[in-house]
Design goal:
It holds the Pfam family Amidohydro_1. By secondary structure, the chain is α/β, with parallel strands linked by helices. It has one domain: TIM Barrel. It contains 15 helices and 17 strands. Helix 2 runs parallel beside helix 3 (153-166), helix 3 packs across helix 6 (204-221) and helix 6 runs parallel beside helix 7.
């Protein structure tokens, strides 16, 4: 089916994040042209019967590590992430290498996050260049991975200020890297070398502490923050409290964190246990996954990602005698939507509209793709899935095409099966048959200053300015508001609620 072909999806229920309607969908030239009943459709359109099915916006997975170089010592992953990992690496070089690899392989539209793993004037300038000239609008920072990718608080503060100035999305991995490093040493000294060491050395209090610190730093920098890989109830509660205080905080969890628990690390089979290594780790409390799924349902958490890194057993075996050398990351891009439908919608923790929000629409809003992506309306890109909510499939490594030699959800029977997938108007998968050529996907340049993140921040800047004008017009400056004296100190305004 060429990019200029016509498609008519008939008889289904169109599900957006805010409402569901019975409607047909007409697609032409890669764009949704009409949504409604009794449409005037030109002859020659491919008719797709969606009777009794749901018609959803295509999923948007915000954390997929493909085609690019993710560096663990002596490790070449099956698919990988090419971000700068050492001091003095160039963000622009990493971006250009990533584009070259991805453009040759991608089968759907994609965008890139760029990691900021050290700080200096060069990084500042390259961030501006990436935003201004290359369509990158998101950067990822790490409070963990000491001596590898971790930024100090002062560096993180400066990066967040830069993100605010250029209108970028600041993605932050929040764990206390200093204490994680100390805990790892202590565990190894005690003879703990297996995968259980990841859970023992990275307790959830180190995540919740760093989450609070990240939100505080972002608030001081007056920058919206997007927390990734939220794994614990205490971190989720910290995010909920920050939102209640009016701070501009969004967060994502992963499918693994919202479905599985840390008992997997104590499995008798080392390979099974090691296949679940992710950072932050899965939590030992068996109630945590359901709690995180509930936070997705009530909008405390905005997005669910796969955090897809399909390392194989041989690669993980680098850490056979030292858990700190097991590569972090799990496979899951293929199963993300089915597993969330089963554990989220079927269990009643979210409805079909919220499902669309956490798997597609919220990501589109946060990354300034909405409503071109993440919504089924006239004028949007024709990224569409015909979804059978009643059909079932059983997940198995024997049928996966996502890479890796292990599946976290082996044997799970899931309701919710994609029957037809359309990407930018092209039929790419039908009834499990993939029919898309490598390289047919496109890099999608992203715009800065998404309203979903920055609208509130802009208003707060106006409030601060107005407060300053009022105070100065009355002859007050800064500290005189506290001391009662006119001190000539500069006025500072930080609004958090």
């Amino acid at each position: 089916m060429s990019a200029k072909s016509l498609s008519d999806l008939r008889g289904g229920k169109v599900v957006n994040d805010d409402f569901t309607q019975e409607a047909d969908v007409y697609i032409e030239n890669g764009i949704i042209q009409q949504v409604g009943k009794e449409l005037m459709i030109p002859g020659g359109a491919k008719v797709i019967d969606a009777s009794g099915k749901l018609v959803l916006p295509g999923g948007i997975d915000t954390s997929v590590h493909l085609l690019i170089h993710f560096s663990f010592p002596s490790c070449s992953p099956l698919v990988s992430l090419h971000l700068p990992r050492r001091k003095h690496c160039s963000l622009l070089d990493a971006y250009e290498k990533s584009r070259a690899l991805a453009d040759a392989k991608a089968c759907c539209d994609y965008a890139l996050h760029v990691g900021v793993t050290w700080w200096g004037p060069k990084v500042h300038n390259e961030m501006e260049t990436l935003v201004r000239e290359h369509g990158v609008n998101s950067f990822q920072m790490y409070m963990a991975y000491k001596d590898m990718m971790m930024l100090k608080d002062s560096e993180l503060y400066q990066v967040l200020q830069t993100c605010k100035d250029i209108g970028a999305i600041a993605r932050v991995h929040a764990e206390n890297g200093e204490l994680v490093a100390e805990s790892q040493k202590e565990a190894l000294d005690l003879g703990i070398s297996g995968p259980e060491g990841i859970e023992i050395s990275r307790p959830e209090e180190l995540e919740s502490e760093a989450t609070h610190r990240a939100v505080t730093i972002a608030n001081r920098a007056r920058c919206p923050i997007y927390l990734v890989n939220v794994s614990s109830a205490s971190a989720g509660d910290m995010i909920a409290a920050a939102k209640m205080q009016g701070k501009v905080v969004h967060a994502e969890t992963t499918v693994a964190h919202a479905v599985l628990n840390g008992s997997q690390y104590y499995h008798q089979d080392w390979a099974h246990a090691a296949a679940h290594v992710i950072a932050p780790p899965l939590r030992i409390d068996p109630d945590t996954p359901a709690y995180l799924m509930g936070l997705l349902g009530n909008d405390t958490l905005s997005v669910v990602a796969s955090e897809h890194r399909p390392f194989g057993t041989k690669q993980r075996a680098l850490g056979k005698d030292d858990f700190t050398k097991i590569p972090h990351g799990v496979a899951g891009v293929q199963d993300r939507m089915s597993v969330i439908w089963e554990r989220g919608v079927v269990t009643g923790k979210m409805d079909e509209n919220r499902f669309v929000a956490v798997t597609s629409s919220n990501a589109a809003k946060i990354y300034n793709l909405y409503p071109r992506k993440g919504r089924i309306i006239p004028g949007a890109d024709a990224d569409v899935v015909v979804w059978d909510p009643d059909a079932t499939r059983t997940i198995s490594v024997s049928t996966q095409v996502q890479g890796g030699d292990f599946n976290l959800y082996e044997g799970m029977r899931c309701h919710g099966v994609p029957l037809v997938t359309i990407s930018r108007g092209r039929l790419v998968c039908e009834n499990g048959v993939f029919m898309c050529a490598e390289g047919s996907g496109k890099f999608y340049p992203q715009r800065t200053f998404p309203d979903f993140l920055y609208k509130k921040m802009v208003q707060r800047e106006k409030v601060c300015l107005n407060i300053g004008v009022v105070f100065l017009s009355k002859g007050f400056t800064g500290n005189s508001l506290v001391s009662g004296k006119d001190t000539n100190a500069p006025l500072r305004c930080t609004v958090s609620s």
